[in-house]
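Morning!

As promised:
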Amino acid sequence: MNVQIDLSLLYPHLFLLIWALLIFAIDFFMTEDNRPSLGYLSIVGLIITAILSFASDKGTTFWGAFRADTFSLSFNIIFIGSAILTIASAIDFVKDRLKHHGEFYGLILLSTLGMMFLASSSDLLSLYVSLELATIALFVLVAFMKRDLKSTESGLKYLILGAASSAILVYGISLLYGLTGTLTFAGIAEQLNTSFMGGPLFILSIILIIAGLSFKLAAVPFHMWCPDVYEGAPTPVTAYLSVASKAAGLAAMIRIFFEGLHSSAAEWIPLILTISALAMVLGNVVAVRQHNIKRLLAYSSIAQIGYILVAFIAVSELATTSMILYMIVYMFANIGAFIVVITFYNRSGSDEIIAYAGLSKRSPFLAISMVIFLLSLVGIPPMAGFVGKFYLFAAAIQKGYYWIVVLGVLTSVISLYYYMMVAYQMYFKSGDDNSRIKVNPTLAVAILIALAGTLFIGVYPEPVLSAISGASVTLF
Amino acid sequence: MYGPLWIVPFFPLVGFLLNGLFGKWFDRVTVSVIACTSVGLSFLWSVVLFFRLSALPPESRFYVEKVFDWFVSGNFSAPMEFYLDPLSAVMILTVSGVGFLIHVYSHGYMSHDESYARYFSFLNLFTFAMLVLVLGSNLLVLFIGWEGVGLCSYLLIGFWFTKKSASDAGKKAFIVNRVGDFGFLLGTFLIFVTFGTLNIQEISTAAPNVLMYGGAIVTTITLLLFVGATGKSAQIPLYIWLPDAMEGPTPVSALIHAATMVTAGVYMVARMSALYVLAPVSMTVVAVIGAATAIFAATIAITQFDIKRVLAYSTISQLGYMFLACGVGAFSAGIFHLMTHAFFKALLFMCAGSVMHAMSNEQDMRYMGDLRKRTPKTFYTMLIGTLAIAGIPGLSGFFSKDEILWESFASPAGGVGFWVVGAVAAGITAFYMFRLIFMTFFGQPRYKHGVEKHIHESPNVMTYPLIALAILAIIGGYVGIPHVLGGHNNFGEFLKPSIAHLASHGEAHHSTTEELLLMGASVAIALLGIVAAFRMYIANPKLPVVIADNFKKVYNLLYNKYYVDEIYYFIIVKPFVRFSQLLYDVADRIFIDGSINLLAYFTGWTGEVIKWFQTGYVRNYIVTFVFGLVIIVGYMLLK
């Protein structure tokens, strides 16, 4: 066999790896005052990585284990975009509260690298290894506030539950390998035959893989870690976790199920359908009762993954496109909302929703931005969330799954209530503290980028849609 | 070789964004320079486009420009597409040209207003929307402009929103227009169902093949579109919002409620002429409504004392003429009158504004008089406007109005009845306009206390636009001199490629003598109106009171505008409010609120229960995790 290694496909990944290691290294030689510049340096690295991803060729290498295509490119942009917004929002936070700049930014870059490999992986082994790279960096990041009890506690919870879910995932993978005798998705798709399809072992392997990945997505009933970890983790990490980590889980799901297992779709669709319905109902219903903005956004993110899975069951080209589009939309809105939370926290030190009372007077910019992000999460036009949800639901409708769409719309109504509770506090209540909140330039720019993305895609989604239209991994 | 079209609406959009976002920090001069320059540049570019267009042979005078794909869904696409042809060229010239003069005038008229930047940003936004409306190459883009001008109209009528009558008038305009817009939307939907496209050129080309002449579909489509036109262009039965719209600043009345927006309905009917010529029933409806509105509104104008309301009813009446023209198949005559009307009616409104400016905002003509010497520039320009609208030979209004009257008689779809109604309305028009002139500028001064010493002519920034428009009101008609007077009707020839023609060419030949005779008759009727006004308001000022007393019932009927507002209130508004109250009490409060409250209670309760599971202990989480897994596996395997 020839040596089938075409390193040119990996240039973005290699570059990011070297850049991450450099960040770790440079940290040693810097004074404490200069270290915040590591954040900007990381952003530069990420931008270069994005450019390299656009520029590099498409193709398969490493004996079929690595594949660069429009799908992986789309997800890479989501990961890199989330990382950039997260780092931009974290610079003050790190300086004031976390310290250890090099480690923080370096770990985010490494986690992003893992996710990029994940989106490109086209066999089960490389998928698993890159998932671990992405997740282990996150374990550390969640527990980054060493002296904060909540942070360390949530880090530990995340680690234990994450390890358990990894074990379940590997178990599922090993069963599937045992049945098909191959690890590549293309091979699995070929080997699927009626002799074991529908048999208990095959179903068990599918259930275990879905359960393992659902943990990453924080879908019900594998969501229990999510509110605690989101609340305890440093907020920038929560922002990253809520978008990038979910996108990674979704990329893995699409790769395995659309590329490898799509001919057995009848077997796993009911399962995803159930998970989707549970996530929408539970996420939205429980969010109503939250008092902490980070927990509220945790439950909302559980609901959001429910909406995305509505399109997943359609198993079509439109399903892939709509999920990627929604992930982009969700990235702008959700990280945008978290940046507002971070900015507010930097000043007030509180994440309680009642602390947001009177924010419209203290900082009209933060308040209106928050409202726009939240409305986008509900799916109100002209915010991007509307376009995103429209395509998600359209994919399901196209395949005749009506009731799940009805449920999606109904639960969206519930979500309007708790999102607007935040707006109610900001606009109709007045708090004890009425001092102005100044937004520093880096955070303001990050918020403006998120706003621009949210409004632009909402009004004019065509360019984004046509850019990701070739992303479907399988010809259905 | 045409150069980009999107530049035309782009400038006012930039002006709107600059003044809208940053106007708070600009001084007044900067604001008005931005606003006027943006519209002025649009006008200059429109002139360039016009000359490039007319340099081409008539059959290739059209140009489509796709700016971007707004959205694409399956085989339906909604491109942001602009279309330049003789019709839209005339419209962008009129809109940006008259618009520019009114912007300049506003700089003087609004100079004391607090919300200066807000005013100009709305005015720019309006110009942008109006240009999108006339340039749109499909009905969707047209509709964006259509709704955009409606929004701006609402915002500007209620510009002084702290005044209740102004905010009420804004709401009235908006709500009445919704009725029309609903019809327009239904028409658009029906077009899409029938043709599978919203592109106006494709529709016009396909119409003769797809639709049956006089068929039910084309009749329904055109009638629905016309419902939209009656709303926007203030025709019976939806005209009631326009007189109230005079609550807005006077330049707004000039721009939106006289020169441009209210003519959108006429433009739309002319734009869709390919459909209308296939629907003889609809054409008759359009002509009848137009003629009826023309005379109906003119009679109301006789008795009004508010200077702006006289002009408002006059606008409604003149719009009726334009629809009469369209209804008898003379679309280009309608557009011709649209253009000349834009000149002289904008002029009249701005003169009225100048009078109000001099009279400390007095609008009631009973408290005016003898302003001739005190505000000479206003007087002479307004006189020119009045002569033009009265149809005195040599001024623009004569040519366009006469073409309409002649067509309403001579066209295969016309008839003697239309001509008589049109000619009588023309006489009434001459009467009430000269009544306005005589009451305002002649006779004894009847000023309220303390007004007299403030009376002054308006500043140059206001009078120069008046002079410019007065010149246009004189010469604007010479682009369309009829054949009978030795001209070539260049205007009609220019518009020909844009407009469909009546199918039935039963060419009833009419002689030149006939045409000259009718022309003479209509001029004589107009002169009669002027003489009557002179006798009543100059020669014998007691006469109007005597007449009003002798014909008390008729006078009251006219003075109270045929009680139409009251009738609408009792027939439509009141039952509607009662029904809404019933729905609110029963359906809303009991059923909807009740079920929502129940659901909310249930949701909250469920949330509370599930929250209880979120103990914070990792062991419990693992248990849930495994438990969930076991249930799923069990279910799938036992299924």
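The radius of gyration of chain B is 28 Å.

Hope this helps with the figure draft.
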